[in-house]
User: Which sequence fits this backbone?
């Protein structure tokens, strides 16, 4: 099988002024496309090595699957966690669970923003299926800092390609503006899937 890049679920300029058309274009068409290509290429290497019975380049290709695959999966979630109609707080079951597991929405948000300020890749809200609770995770690159068994619910990309052109070094302003476009429909659906699967 090979992986494909889905179009953005909105126009490239739909998240302005919080994220510019230029950044979304580069980010989706160049960076995200690169992870899709990298994943496909690594899979081809693995397949060829299995046919040849020569596994010398397989460990590197396996690492490329993890890196590029995680990049593809998280970017898909990131795009689908924003919309021009976004900017609300979570509601319903996910809101209740955030309050239960973090004490309050503000406590969750403060912790998530701190994670986003520190990460070398992503801040994630995940459902941890071992402990059966929501957690914030600090991820470097696309995969370093992952907790096994965690199901991503909300993803915020803080790689420099995500904000530097719009905000320069003021990453905190980008993180604040993410909350002006965050759309909780997809995270809520993913939370409900996780509960169905794991509880
Ligand atoms: Fe990115």
Assistant:
């Amino acid at each position: 099988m090979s992986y494909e890049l889905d179009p953005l679920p909105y126009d490239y300029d739909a998240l302005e002024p919080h994220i510019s058309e230029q950044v979304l274009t580069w980010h989706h068409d160049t960076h995200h496309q690169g992870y899709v290509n990298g994943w496909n290429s690594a899979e081809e290497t693995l397949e060829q090595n299995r046919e040849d019975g020569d596994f010398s380049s397989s460990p590197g290709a396996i690492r490329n699957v993890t890196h590029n695959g995680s990049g593809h999966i998280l970017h898909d979630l990131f795009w689908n966690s924003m919309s021009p109609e976004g900017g609300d707080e979570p509601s319903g079951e996910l809101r209740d669970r955030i309050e239960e597991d973090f004490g309050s929405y503000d406590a969750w948000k403060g912790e998530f923003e701190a994670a986003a300020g520190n990460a070398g890749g992503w801040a994630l809200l995940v459902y941890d299926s071992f402990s059966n609770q929501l957690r914030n995770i600090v991820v470097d690159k696309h995969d370093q800092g992952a907790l096994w068994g965690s199901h991503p619910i909300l993803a915020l990309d803080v790689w420099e390609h995500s904000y530097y052109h719009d905000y320069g070094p003021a990453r905190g302003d980008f993180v604040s503006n993410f909350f002006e476009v965050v759309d909780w429909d997809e995270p809520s659906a993913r939370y409900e899937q996780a509960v169905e699967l794991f509880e």
